[in-house]
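Incident log, support desk, overnight shift.

02:14 A customer reports that sequence design results differ from what the structure should imply. Their input is reproduced verbatim below. On-call engineer (initials T.W.) acknowledged and began investigating.
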C-alpha cells in the first residue's frame, strides 16, 4: 500500500472516473427466494400446465395437468477484500486515506465488477438468443440489428414490458446523433436504455483471486475467450440476481487486535442466473473477437 503524507493540499480530491453500477435495477425481490436443501443454494418454483383439449357434450372436459417443481441453483459469487490504514497514515493525510477508501472501493471496484460478472454470466447461459458476431459499421447497422433482436423476442413471446437495453456508449450515442423518428421509436420500445462501458461488457471474464502472482491487485479482466459485447437485451423477470449477504464493516483501531490501524472489510455473496423457462428473455450481440 502506497500512502503519501500530506503537505499543503487543496480540498479537491483526484479520483478515478467510474460510473455507478448499471445492473442494480436487475436485482430480484429477495422475498421470492427460498432456501435450498444446502445453505449455499436457493430454490425457485417452475410451473407448467397442459393445453386445451376438445370439449365433449357427453363426457365434458378433458383432464389437464399442472406441474410445479422447485429448481435449485447454487450461489456463484463470493468476493471480498480487507483494507487496512495505519492511524498515523490516516491522521497525516488529514483523514483522507481511510475516510475516502470505502467510497472509492465501492465506486471503482465493487460496482464495475458486479456489472461485469452479471453480463458475463448472462452471456454464458445456454439457450439464450445470440445474434451474428459483428462489429457495426455505423448507428444504422446497430439499429438494424436491434430490430432483428426485437423481432426475435417478439416471436418468442417475451413481454415488451420490462425489457432493458444495455449497449455501449458508442452505439447509444450514435443512435442519438441520428435524431430520427425511427431511432427514437425503436429506443422507446424498451423500458430503459442504459450505457455500459466496454470495460464491463464482455462475454467472459476472469475474477482475479488477489493472491496468485500477477493477480495480487484483485478485481477482474476480460477472459482470453471473452468477446466484446455490443448490446444485450434483458427481460428483468427472466433474471435471478440476489445478494444473500453483503458485509461492509468498519473496525476502529481500538478493536483491531493485530495493529494500530483502521480496517474496512467488504464481502458480497450472491447469485446471478436465469430462470430455465425464460432464457428467451436474454438477447446477446457481440463482436467477432
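02:41 Re-run completed on a clean worker. Output:
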Amino acid at each position: 500500500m502506497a500512502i503519501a503524507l500530506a503537505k499543503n493540499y487543496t480540498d479537491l480530491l483526484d479520483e478515478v472516473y467510474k460510473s455507478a453500477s448499471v445492473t442494480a435495477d436487475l436485482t430480484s425481490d429477495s422475498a421470492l427466494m427460498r432456501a435450498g436443501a444446502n445453505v449455499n443454494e436457493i430454490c425457485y418454483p417452475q410451473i407448467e400446465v397442459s393445453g386445451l383439449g376438445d370439449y365433449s357434450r357427453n363426457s365434458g372436459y378433458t383432464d389437464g395437468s399442472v406441474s410445479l417443481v422447485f429448481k435449485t441453483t447454487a450461489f456463484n459469487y463470493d468476493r471480498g477484500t480487507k483494507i487496512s490504514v495505519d492511524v498515523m497514515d490516516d491522521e497525516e493525510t488529514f483523514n483522507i486515506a481511510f475516510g475516502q477508501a470505502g467510497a472509492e472501493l465501492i465506486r471503482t471496484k465493487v460496482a464495475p465488477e458486479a456489472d461485469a460478472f452479471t453480463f458475463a454470466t448472462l452471456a454464458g447461459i445456454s439457450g439464450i438468443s445470440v445474434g451474428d458476431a459483428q462489429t457495426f459499421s455505423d448507428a444504422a447497422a446497430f439499429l438494424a440489428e436491434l430490430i432483428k433482436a426485437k423481432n426475435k423476442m417478439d416471436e418468442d413471446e417475451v413481454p415488451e414490458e420490462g425489457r432493458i437495453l444495455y449497449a455501449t456508449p458508442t452505439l447509444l450515442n450514435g443512435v442519438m446523433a441520428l435524431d430520427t423518428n425511427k431511432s427514437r421509436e425503436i429506443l422507446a420500445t424498451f423500458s430503459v436504455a442504459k450505457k455500459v462501458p466496454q470495460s464491463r461488457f464482455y462475454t467472459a471474464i476472469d475474477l482475479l483471486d488477489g493472491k496468485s502472482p500477477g493477480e495480487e491487485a484483485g478485481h477482474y479482466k476480460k477472459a482470453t475467450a471473452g468477446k466484446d459485447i455490443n448490446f444485450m437485451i434483458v427481460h428483468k423477470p427472466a433474471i435471478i440476481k440476489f445478494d444473500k449477504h453483503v458485509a461492509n464493516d468498519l473496525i476502529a483501531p481500538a478493536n483491531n487486535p493485530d495493529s494500530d490501524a483502521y480496517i474496512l472489510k467488504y464481502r458480497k455473496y450472491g447469485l446471478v442466473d436465469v430462470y430455465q423457462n425464460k432464457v428467451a428473455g436474454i438477447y446477446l450481440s457481440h463482436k467477432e473477437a
